[in-house]
Amino acid sequence: MAPKIAKLFASVAMALVTTGAAHAETLYVATGGSQNMVDYVTDYLGPLFTEHNPGWTVQAVGTGPGDAGSQAILEKLSAQKDQDVWDTDVIVVNQLKTAEMVEAGLLQKYRSDIKTGDMVTSDVSRKALGTDVDGFVMPMFSSQTAIAYNPDMVEQVPQSLEEIKAWASAHPGAFGYNGIKNGMSGVAFATAWIYAFGGDAAKLIDGPYDKADEAGWDQAFADLKAFNQTVTFTPGNAGTLDMLNRGEIVMGPVWVDMFYTWQADGRLNPNLKLMLPEPGMPGQPYYYAIPAKAAHAEAARKFIELATSPEVQAEGIVKKFNWYPGIDAKHLEGILDQASWDKLFTDVSPEDLAAKAKPFPLGAYFSDLLEQYETKVSN
Amino acid sequence: MISRKASLVLVGPALALMATLFLLPLGYSLIWAFREEEADRWGLGNFAKAWEFYSADILFSLVIVTLSTVLIGIFSIAIAGYLTLGRIPWAVALLRWLYRWPLFIPFVVAAQVMRTFLAKNGMMNNALVELGLLTPFQTASFLDWRGIVITFVWKQTPFVTLLVAGAMASLDRSMIEAAQNLGARRGRILFGIVVPQVAQTLMVGLILSYVTMMSVLSVPMMINAQQPTMLTVDMAWRINAYGDYGVANALGFIAYLMTACVTWVYLRKELRERGAHAR
Amino acid sequence: MTSLLRSGLVGLALALLASAIFGPISNILLWAFTEQWYFPAKLPQAFGFSFWERVFRPQGNAFASLLNSVVIAMMTVAVSLAIAIPAGLALGRGRLPLRVLFLLVFLLPQAFPSLAVHMNIARIFYTLGLNGTFLGVVLVHALQGMVFSVWIAAAAFAAVDPQLEEAASNMGATPFTVFRTVTLPLALPGVMASAIFVFLISLDEFTGTYFVGVPDITTMPLLLFTAAMEGNYQIASITALLLLVPSIGFMLVIERFLKADVLAKVGH
């Protein structure tokens, strides 16, 4: 009762403010991820959608970073499973939880119904950490983690995880990361650690799943536990950037897009630099998906079509928010100016990315990795 | 006077709300702690997992909260004692005005305030460096267990002090004055005469603070969400990232046990005394 | 000489205490108006209002959170008073068997870590469809404030002189008229105090809203939390400042509302 009334009021109020259109409708978007993703929908994509579709407004709800944020959307959808119409029209979720949602039958296939559907050919549009999600998703963007550092305080920049390990023990407290409970940049670092020291990374990424591959993890996690004694823990993805800016740490894993956005915003010291260490660090896309019983599925498709159009990918995703595009890069040629494109690769070159940008491991390995981090490293 | 029946009717809605919003979920939390969803059976599995994953955090929570409680007790006795026995009128007046400021500041605000204040290059270290008491290389971040303890003490001391100072103010002054006339030192008066008489109020304040601190989520999340951290962070993490109510409730059960010991002492004493009053 | 030394020492101790209390608070003020503050600058390099504009931009969620917070707090006060006034009347004036036990029941939520209860309330509310609704959040806040609203109301009613009521009823007033014209007006300052208390508790409540309201309902404390976790120190500090004002305001006036005679009866 109460939420319906509240929503009614909200949509009526919005309609009065924005347009005088005869019928006003609201598209509900739930997005996981950090605040910049909520801002992207509220400040950029939402108004643009209203412009293209008079009478529609977009209401965005942010559910927070990391697995927890996407899990919140998963729970929201499962809670409504038995109802005929669900209250969320478009969701933006990470790979692990998208895979779970597809398996639980909470999403609908739509990619072949939208014009931009064939503009993605990358692996991530078909598989999410080993689970088949073909047709259910469109990548919103891809992003990459890297190591940010303050060149004024680091004489010899470590080039591999091995060297980072040595550097951190020589400079206690100067390396910082956010563990695994508050955002994915810390998870990415822990994953990179296992890729570097835990055995065959390619097997973890491509499968098939075999518990025996985790034999080398014990030693790697024991080393990570020792390594953790010499680092500073930060309160989150943003917390790492923030502590870098405040000079409280000198080096730490961050999301490349957040790093550039903060610099453009004046929130981060312009001197700071990025690098992608050997043997590589993970990155991930976020997906647009439509819940199986979304109330406004038609509008949701239009919304995603707009969001994955070359113009929006160029202007919004790359230029304004510094993400790598979700659709294939060739579709952006001629739309995006060279300078904006080059800006994405200021510190991390396309060659670096080709060699050292890795996906997260298969879902089953990934869950084991997170669990063992808790039992063997943090406890 | 209102009749018995009418009284029961009047108190009814409040009790009903208590039953549905507190006793029911409390009961559920106790039951679900023993439910192993995946194996579809009852048992101690959740507790084993909770211990395997979070034993360090369980001990950490206990130590942090106990230490904070002790410090709150010391500071509140000191402040309330000076308010009662202080001889410099302006200092007493100033202290009375001063100590209460954090009283109603919410934990989430206190955490944010402290996060920027206690950081390595936060205001506190900057000020110490400016005063020449530290060099920039000696500064250290307090955003670990110390940050949590400092925030708890900063936020909860005024509450306990308010209670204790109130109790001290209502004491019979004649005994204190007699002791003063005999030339007793103020420290002896405070611990020999005043504190024993307000011990119960102090206990109540400390127990309430202990339980409150045991269930604060925002402070450990914002100041030190990493290893080791407090149980509340782990409970939220199990639920938010995994939807794992079993282990979360097992951790809740452990938190109940840690508070039950102290609250039991209080409830028993309270019941005995009030029972005596009623008769 | 020794007294001068003593004054000096007391003054020093007070100055230390004052900086421990006001240092962190003034820090928030600084951050709220900071535009740029890179390490190793000791003070912000640029001050301004641009983050205030960002917080209160029309599309942003600060206005919505502020409105939510105030609406929820007022609804919580209404719900709390509706149940606390009759309960307070019964506990303060009535003839309840086992009155002590009844009083202690309301204290119970303070005796258990609330987070463990909140997460199960959220689970129950999910099945009832109350998660993410105003009603759900209001109920959780009302539970948090229950011990204060009921205890203070009971103390306020207990402090009313029974002889005045008797006088009124001797003049032929019905029990309800007595309550409306004598008891309630006399107890009003105490009831007001309990209302303010509940308002403040609801305004500041974090854990319950975190489990029951999120992500659909965002209140000021949650906005502050998100901003802080996202490293938006300015936005977090602005929100913190907005929450500080009512907290400190209430701290400064509490004694006007909670008179000694009522205070002495709280929990008795």
From TrEMBL, chain A:
Signal peptide positions on this chain: 1-24
InterPro entries given in the database record: SBP
A Pfam family it matches: SBP_bac_8
Keywords of the record: Periplasm, Signal
Signal recorded as keyword: yes
Name used for this protein in its record: Extracellular solute-binding protein
Organism: Roseibium aestuarii
Organism ancestry: Bacteria, Pseudomonadati, Pseudomonadota, Alphaproteobacteria, Hyphomicrobiales
TrEMBL record, chain B:
Keyword rRNA-binding: no
Record key words, sorted: Cell membrane, Membrane, Transmembrane, Transmembrane helix, Transport
PROSITE patterns: ABC_TM1 (PS50928)
Iron is among the record's keywords: no
Residue span, ABC transmembrane type-1 domain: 58-266
Membrane-topology descriptor: Multi-pass membrane protein
Transmembrane segments: 53-85, 97-118, 145-168, 189-211, 245-267
Subcellular location: Cell membrane
InterPro entries tied to this protein: MetI-like, MetI-like_sf
Domain of life: Bacteria
Pfam families: BPD_transp_1
Family: Belongs to the binding-protein-dependent transport system permease family. CysTW subfamily.
Protein name: ABC transporter permease
Source taxonomy: Bacteria, Pseudomonadati, Pseudomonadota, Alphaproteobacteria, Hyphomicrobiales
TrEMBL record, chain C:
Transmembrane regions listed in the UniProt entry: 12-33, 66-89, 101-122, 134-160, 181-203, 209-228, 235-254
Keywords associated with the record: Cell inner membrane, Cell membrane, Membrane, Transmembrane, Transmembrane helix, Transport
Entry keyword annotation includes Repeat: no
Keyword Nucleotide-binding in record: no
Location relative to the cell: Cell inner membrane; Cell membrane
Chief localisation class: membrane
Gene3D superfamilies: MetI-like
ABC transmembrane type-1 domain segment(s): 66-254
Signal peptide start and end residues: none
Pfam families to which the protein is assigned, alphabetical: BPD_transp_1
Membrane topology: Multi-pass membrane protein
Source species, domain of life: Bacteria
Family as reported in the entry's similarity comment: Belongs to the binding-protein-dependent transport system permease family.
The protein's name in its UniProt record: ABC transporter permease
The species this protein was found in: Roseibium aestuarii
Origin organism lineage: Bacteria, Pseudomonadati, Pseudomonadota, Alphaproteobacteria, Hyphomicrobiales
